[in-house]
């Protein structure tokens, strides 16, 4: 039973991180209608910025988290302005290749500055709580708490504020949104900023239990793709549910099946589901 | 093929044949031979992505399948190189049949995301399945191709010609494919699958065929790589390799015959001269890739072809020269270069 609960905790931790990354990806998809491969590099950039702020400038953990969120939001907005905006009328293939270009640039840039080594990021929350035989490392609880708080805040923002509603409107119908006076450029920039900030924060939350290195975004971003395909591209609730499904599948798969193959589980799930239902789990109509 | 083009390709072939005498040392031969191997794989990627319009992100995985077919069969089962090599393309194509059957039902970026995941599964399987693939250590001591007709394939110059032969054959086959009705069918699918379907083209069958042909080239390039480098690790299946090939294809010109060749040979040489950048080459090439898709989406060769066709069209449109229809046709053709 304790072992089972332990896996639930692991699943929630992973699921929380995946949710944050997938949410940003799905929001940007709503605007661009192309998958942004650079999102994984944004995630990586967040971890490096925080690592730099903590080790070189002596920032505290929370200040570094905020700094990373701001820096990645800036990178994200810049890439929208400089790369995706000029390509807005180009075929989807060009978007994808351009986002790969950004990805490669950011990764080798980080490697040029910080080297190819793995870095450890310290956290002030090293404590371990024990609750009825279940071990609860404080950082993991922090990840779960922060992830769910951010998801709830994002939901409130999208549902209850006018600015949030413009994002949803633009994702639903670009021309319709323009007709009612929504400035598509501003909303696109805002969406990229939010997506970047979420990816940056996810990385800083997760980095203390999973080193900082240049290719740290690869698996996370690929799994985020799996999540948003499963949950329906552009769907916010789908990204949350999908994130938790993949998080749990991996935690339980690693424990009950094999640690070696745990990374394959998410991809195998996608291949299996898309083979049986090419339209995804929660979507009607084919892609 | 026009007379100009025939002269151009002949000149290129002569230059390639003379290269071992022009090259200063064996190192240059190695760089060129490796570039040729990746050029074969890139030519294959261009068939499915450039001509058929489906961006396959598992391409390096199929190259790895070809390489591991040769590695496993020669080292673990004592098969002669040439026999194992003959299987490398077909094994990749067979696997491509099953992957394509499932993945090609998806369109646009869903296909790309799906193949990205397939590529990761291939990479992770190669890395973790130690019993079959030797895991992260990779397969060492792959034998050199057995000599025949007095040709010793452990010698750099012979190896260079061996790889060149396969590259030339690949380009010739690709030329035959894209100029045939089959190639026209692929291009029709790229330009609009619904229109193609309305013309009576069986989408699934043709896309599957393009996919299998494309990964056949990847598998064969992998087999050559195994026989040439004689050491393989899971790294060749990594998605970055596909990104590299995409870059070669895009710089040269996507959907052209000479483009992928130019990119696959030009970029490695450029990185040779930017040695200090070796590990950070994408600090330069990342932005180059972005600038290319924004300002030069047809690549070097594609843009050149477009210009030439426009010039021909203008010349034809001038009064007193060739028939007006020819000009109109050429102008229409520019869209699909």
Write up what this structure looks like.
Chain A is mainly alpha-helical and 287 residues long. Chain A has eleven helices and two strands. Chain A has one domain (14-216). In chain A, 73% of the residues lie in helices and 3% in strands. In chain A, helix 1 runs antiparallel to helix 10 (236-256), helix 2 runs parallel beside helix 4 and helix 10 (236-256) packs across helix 11. Chain B is mainly α and 337 residues long. Chain B has two domains: 9-283, Orthogonal Bundle (ABC transporter involved in vitamin B12 uptake, BtuC), CATH 1.10.3470; 298-337. Chain B contains 15 helices and two strands. Chain B has helices at 3-22, 26-51, 59-76, 81-103, 108-128, 130-133, 156-179, 181-191, 193-198, 203-229, 239-252, 258-273, 281-295, 299-317, 324-333, and strands spanning 139-140, 231-232. A two-stranded antiparallel sheet of chain B has the order 1-2. The longest helix of chain B is centred in the middle third of the chain and has 27 residues, at 203-229. Chain B starts with a helix and ends with a helix.
Write the layout of secondary structure elements.
The complex is a heterodimer of chains A (287) and B (337).
Chain A: H1 2-32, H2 39-55, H3 61-84, H4 92-114, E1 128-131, E2 134-137, H5 138-160, H6 162-172, H7 174-179, H8 184-206, H9 216-231, H10 236-256, H11 262-276
Antiparallel strand pairs in A: 1-2
Chain B: H1 3-22, H2 26-51, H3 59-76, H4 81-103, H5 108-128, H6 130-133, E1 139-140, H7 156-179, H8 181-191, H9 193-198, H10 203-229, E2 231-232, H11 239-252, H12 258-273, H13 281-295, H14 299-317, H15 324-333
Antiparallel strand pairs in B: 1-2
Helix pairs in contact in B: 1-7, 2-7, 2-8, 2-10, 2-11, 2-12, 3-4, 3-5, 3-10, 4-10, 7-8, 8-10, 11-12, 11-14, 14-15
Annotation keywords:
heterodimer, A: 287 residues, mainly alpha, two-stranded antiparallel ribbon, 3% strand, B: ABC transporter involved in vitamin B12 uptake, BtuC, two-stranded antiparallel sheet, 15 helices, 2 strands, 75% helix, 1% strand, globular
């Amino acid at each position: 039973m304790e072992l089972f609960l332990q896996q639930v905790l692991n699943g929630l931790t992973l699921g929380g991180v995946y949710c944050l990354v997938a949410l940003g990806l799905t929001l940007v998809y709503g605007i661009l209608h192309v998958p942004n491969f650079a999102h994984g590099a944004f995630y990586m950039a967040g971890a490096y910025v925080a690592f730099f702020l903590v080790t070189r400038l002596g920032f505290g953990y929370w200040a570094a988290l905020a700094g990373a969120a701001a820096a990645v939001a800036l990178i994200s907005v810049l890439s929208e302005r400089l790369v995706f905006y000029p390509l807005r009328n180009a075929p989807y293939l060009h978007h994808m290749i351009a986002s790969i270009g950004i990805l490669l640039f950011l990764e080798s840039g980080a490697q040029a500055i910080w080297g190819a080594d793995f870095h450890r990021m310290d956290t002030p929350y090293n404590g371990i709580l024990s609750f009825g035989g279940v071990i609860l490392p404080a950082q993991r609880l922090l990840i779960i708490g922060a992830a769910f708080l951010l998801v709830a805040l994002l939901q409130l923002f999208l549902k209850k504020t006018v600015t949030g509603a413009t994002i949803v409107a633009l994702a639903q119908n670009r021309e319709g949104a323009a007709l009612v006076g929504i400035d598509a450029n501003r909303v696109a920039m805002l969406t990229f900023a939010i997506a970047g900030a979420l990816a940056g924060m996810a990385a800083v939350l997760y980095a203390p239990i999973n080193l900082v290195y240049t290719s740290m975004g690869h698996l996370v971003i690929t799994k985020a793709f799996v999540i948003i395909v499963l949950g329906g591209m552009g769907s916010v609730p789908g990204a949350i549910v999908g994130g938790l499904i993949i998080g749990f599948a991996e935690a339980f798969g690693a424990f009950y099946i094999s640690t070696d193959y745990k990374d394959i589980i998410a991809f195998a799930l996608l291949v299996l589901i898309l083979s049986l239902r090419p339209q995804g789990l929660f979507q009607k109509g084919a892609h | 093929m026009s007379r100009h083009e025939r002269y151009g390709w002949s000149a290129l072939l002569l230059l390639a044949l003379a290269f071992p005498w022009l090259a200063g040392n064996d190192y240059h031969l190695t760089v060129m031979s490796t570039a040729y191997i990746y050029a074969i794989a890139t030519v294959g990627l261009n068939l499915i992505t450039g001509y058929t319009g489906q961006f396959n992100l598992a391409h390096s995985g199929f190259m790895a399948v070809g390489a591991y077919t040769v590695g496993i069969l020669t080292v673990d089962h004592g098969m002669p190189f040439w026999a194992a090599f003959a299987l490398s393309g077909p094994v990749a194509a067979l696997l491509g049949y099953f992957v394509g059957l499932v993945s090609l039902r998806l369109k646009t970026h869903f296909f790309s995301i799906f193949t990205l995941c397939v590529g990761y599964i291939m990479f992770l399987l190669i890395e973790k399945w130690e019993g079959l693939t030797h895991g992260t250590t990779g397969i060492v001591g792959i034998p050199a191709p057995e000599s025949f007709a007095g040709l010793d394939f452990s010698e750099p110059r012979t190896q260079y010609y061996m790889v060149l032969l396969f590259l030339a054959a690949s380009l010739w086959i690709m030329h035959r494919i894209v100029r045939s009705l089959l190639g026209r069918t692929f291009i029709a699918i790229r330009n609009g699958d619904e229109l193609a379907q309305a013309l009576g083209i069986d989408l699934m069958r043709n896309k599957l065929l393009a996919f299998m042909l494309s990964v056949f080239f990847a598998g064969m390039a992998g087999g050559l790589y195994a026989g040439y480098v004689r050491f393989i690790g899971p790294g060749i299946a990594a998605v970055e390799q596909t990104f590299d090939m995409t870059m070669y294809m895009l710089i040269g010109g996507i959907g052209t015959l000479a483009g992928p060749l130019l990119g696959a040979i030009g970029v490695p040489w450029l990185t040779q001269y930017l040695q200090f950048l070796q590990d950070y080459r994408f600090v330069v090439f990342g932005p180059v890739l972005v600038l290319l898709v924004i300002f030069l989406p047809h690549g070097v060769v594609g843009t050149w072809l477009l210009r030439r066709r426009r010039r021909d069209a203008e010349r034809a449109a001038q009064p007193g020269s060739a028939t007006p229809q020819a000009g109109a046709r050429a102008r229409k053709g520019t869209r699909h270069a």
